[in-house]
Design a protein that fits this description.
Number of domains: 2
Largest sheet: 7 strands, mixed
Shape: globular
Bound molecules: pyridoxal-5'-phosphate
Strand order of the largest sheet: 6-12-11-10-9-7-8
CATH class of the largest domain: Alpha Beta
Strand content: 5-15%
CATH topology of the largest domain: Aspartate Aminotransferase, domain 2
């Protein structure tokens, strides 16, 4: 691609891309009367302008109908989660029956591990990436302890090699092979939140299965960012949040995936609640749990309607655009950001180092600014750029294809250049 570091080029590129109009559908925080350069959609996605009316509808139906809203609301609350299922399933490459929106991400990871981390004396180890997102580290460690195993023995963490930032796939496969007699679970973040490295989920799933292990992914940074094919890859289970790339609002409802091959197995151990009970007989209130044969079985409680309304507003936009078009635009924007960082580097003695791999990435560039630290990040904020700081030394920038523009990226380059 022939990029240029000019306002004219950036504006032309925006004009030429038909997805650029979606920017108008989002609300941007303001800085000196101008939209900020918002590069933190991988942490908290921006609010669609439609979200308010979706939530308002539920508030009004609640006011007008009280409990009868469960059946009589415009979008009845009883089956409300079902309104999200098809659209969510498309985004992650799953069948609708394999997909459910419920709870929060870490909660879902635990609930799924109740079913899919079943350690035995022989097979009890979990393999994950080193420096996984802290919540995942706590979840995995606490599961191991809960089952009475020692973390030192049972947790295999794959690190980057000395002097490298990203993890080599061959090191993952080698560790899987080495532990093939004792490995119970491979549980990796599909995209590393720190470096932005995307893992080959299809190949890791194959390698895990060959070793006789279950394979699950945390897709907090994958859902709505990458083209995923959870069903076709044969992934056993996955979970993700909806407030990052999926723009559903702070702490909004999370997603879960359980592969079709497990859905008929009603003997799987699990923590049950009434929302996982067969819908047809749920309200007979019988004491025997009759599990649904879809991912809905893992639901415990009735659905958080306001969070789901926000999620529905966002998924409607994703459905309109489609992941193929979105990923294509994402690649162009991310490549332009890489180019702009390179342009700044030329003028600033190569002080910026991009640690995100070129080949395995979504819409995130993680930058180490050698010789600068958190003060640089603070200065960016003061100048109307919102990137994200991760200890000890990384500035993460996510040019989100739904609402970021080439012009955002150009402006970022100008501001960054002026601060170094
Ligand atoms: C954002 C994120 C979380 C956050 O977990 P919550 O349960 O939603 O608070 C967990 N894991 C990963 C990999 C994340 O990126």
């Amino acid at each position: 691609m022939n990029f240029m570091n000019s306002l004219e080029f950036a504006q032309q590129s925006d004009k030429a891309d038909k997805l650029s109009v979606y920017r108008q559908r989002f609300l941007f925080p303001q800085h000196n009367g101008q939209d900020v350069v918002y590069f933190t959609g991988n942490s908290l996605g921006l609010q669609p302008k439609t979200t308010q009316s979706y939530i308002q509808q539920e508030l009004e139906d609640w006011a007008k109908l009280g409990v009868e809203g469960h059946f009589l609301a415009k979008h009845p609350w009883m089956p409300y989660h079902e309104f999200l299922t098809d659209k969510m399933a498309k985004i992650v490459g799953a069948l609708p029956e394999e997909t459910v929106m419920m709870n929060q991400l870490t909660v879902n990871l635990h609930l799924l591990m109740v079913s899919f981390y079943r350690p035995t004396k022989q097979r009890y180890k979990i393999l994950c990436e080193a420096k996984a997102f802290p919540s995942d580290q706590y979840a995995l460690r606490s599961q191991i302890k809960f089952h009475g195993y020692s973390i030192e023995d049972a947790l295999i963490e794959i690190s980057p090699r000395e002097g490298e930032y990203t993890i080599r796939h061959e090191d993952i496969y080698e560790a899987i092979e080495k532990n093939k007699d004792s490995l119970a679970l491979v549980m990796i973040g599909g995209v590393n939140y720190f470096t932005g490295q995307v893992f080959d989920m299809k190949a890791i799933t194959e390698a895990g299965h060959k070793a006789g292990a279950i394979v699950g992914f945390d897709l907090a940074h994958g859902a709505g960012n990458l083209k995923l094919a959870l069903h076709d890859w044969g992934v056993d289970f996955a979970a993700w949040c909806s407030y990052k790339y999926l723009n559903s609002g702070p702490g909004s409802v999370a997603g879960a995936f359980v592969h079709q091959k497990h859905l008929k197995n009603t003997d799987l151990p699990m923590f049950a609640g009434w929302w996982g009970h067969d819908k047809k007989t749920r309200f007979l209130m019988d004491k025997t749990f009759v599990p649904m044969q879809t991912a809905e079985r893992w639901q415990m409680s009735n659905a958080p309607i306001f969070a789901m309304a926000a999620c529905r507003a966002s998924l409607d936009i994703f459905d309109e655009v489609g992941m193929d078009a979105l990923v294509e635009r994402s690649k162009r924007l991310t490549a332009y950001l890489e180019f702009i960082v390179g342009e700044v580097n030329k003028q600033k003695n190569d002080c910026l180092e991009i640690i995100t791999p070129k080949e395995n990435r979504g819409c995130q560039i993680s930058i180490v600014a050698n010789g600068y630290g958190k003060p640089l990040y603070n200065k960016l904020i003061e100048n109307g750029v919102i990137p994200d700081w991760r200890e000890p030394n990384v500035i993460r920038c996510a040019p989100v294809p739904l609402y970021n523009s080439f012009e955002d990226i150009f402006r970022f380059g100008q501001i960054l250049n002026s601060l170094l």
